[in-house]
Design goal:
79% helix, A middle domain of Talin 1, 345 residues, two-stranded antiparallel ribbon, globular
């Protein structure tokens, strides 16, 4: 199931992006907006499906863990591994602006989590901010200078083998979404069984295996961008995805139901997310390349973080006795994580 889920996620994410890029071009969407929103947000659909299902099924801690864990993985792993292949840099002014926005939103989100819960009206504000961001990106993208536009067009053209008609692109999008949903479901179900067999907690699963599994499309996109030496695509992908994770996924999820923030996330993982954002912000704002050595450091930091979760350094229970003391049972967890495919069925 893990192997099949990985394949479906990679294929589904790739097909979705190809169809979405063609559709956006047919609708005369500025290339910059395509790079920062369509490509990045198209790869975030697994996080949205899992988070919504977790909240509706009564396990909001999985939703918040998925968002925070995905943002950590996006920065440390999705940027770290491609940088090892080829140093990546951001020389597009618009992406630098969005990087600054991502950092500010991350701080505001952390402050919001310190209250212990995210209420419905707060989720509505976050979703409204996302709509405002998309609108601003659209109009600012239309005014980008020629050099910036040419750079983004070159990166978009790097997505080969795309459909040529609107109807075919819509088919690509639907097939891609189906692949992502079923792929995420297979990967998560298989990973949950493996994780539970290893004796880790439900919260640890949400922050590590689920977050990593739903971040695989971003990782695939960034690895391809690094191989093609398109650093702006890799960085723009992470910036856009992290913004969507906070404003879109957490905003929509908390609008559906109030999301409580577990104490261990407030005490540990929230600060890891902010630290990760601090580590890459200077490179985004100043346009400095992320070297192979620094990329290796980021990737190593992520693996250390995951190990810290597994060994209970964040205060999360990992033994069977400790898991039994939690309000959610293993059976409930597996049922929650198997819902996406059932919803489509």
């Amino acid at each position: 199931m893990v192997a099949g889920g990985l394949v479906l996620l990679l294929i589904g994410g790739d097909v979705l992006v190809r169809g979405a890029v063609t559709l956006a071009q047919r609708l005369a969407v500025p290339p910059l907006v395509i790079g920062l929103t369509v490509v990045a947000f198209g790869t975030s659909s697994p996080e949205l499906v899992v988070s919504l299902d977790a909240v509706l099924s009564g396990a909001p801690e999985i939703a918040i863990g998925n968002v925070i864990g995905s943002n950590i993985a996006n920065i440390l792993l999705v940027l770290g591994l491609p940088a090892i292949i080829f140093p990546i840099a951001c020389d597009v002014e618009a992406i630098r602006r969005d990087g600054a926005i991502m950092f500010a939103i991350s701080i505001a989100f952390a402050a919001l989590c310190l209250s212990g819960q995210i209420l419905n009206w707060q989720g509505a504000i976050m979703t409204s901010l996302l709509c405002g961001y998309l609108t601003w990106s659209y109009f600012s993208g239309r005014e980008e200078n020629e050099v910036t536009a040419e750079a983004i067009v070159d990166e978009i053209e790097g997505i080969a083998a795309r459909p040529h008609s609107i109807w075919l692109s819509l088919t690509f999008i639907l097939v891609g979404i189906a692949g992502l949903v079923y792929g995420a479901d297979m990967l998560i179900d298989g990973a949950v069984v493996l994780a539970l067999a290893a004796g880790v907690s439900e919260a640890t699963i949400g922050l590590s295996l689920i977050a990593l599994g739903t971040s695989l499309p971003e990782l695939a996109t960034s690895l391809v961008a690094a191989i093609r030496r398109h650093g702006d695509v890799a960085i723009g992908n992470v910036v856009g995805s992290n913004l969507f994770n906070i404003l879109g996924i957490m905003g929509i999820t908390s609008m559906v139901r109030t999301v409580p923030i577990p104490d261990q996330i407030v005490a540990y993982d929230l600060w890891i997310m902010l630290a990760a954002a601090i580590l890459i912000t200077p490179f985004v704002l100043r346009g400095r390349p992320i070297s192979r050595r620094y990329g290796g450091f980021l990737a190593l930091a992520y693996f250390i973080y995951v190990l810290s979760l597994y060994h209970g350094m964040s205060g999360m229970p990992k033994t069977e006795a400790e898991q039994a003391a939690q309000p959610k049972t293993v059976k409930q967890t597996v049922q929650i994580l198997s819902m996406p495919a059932k919803l489509l069925g």
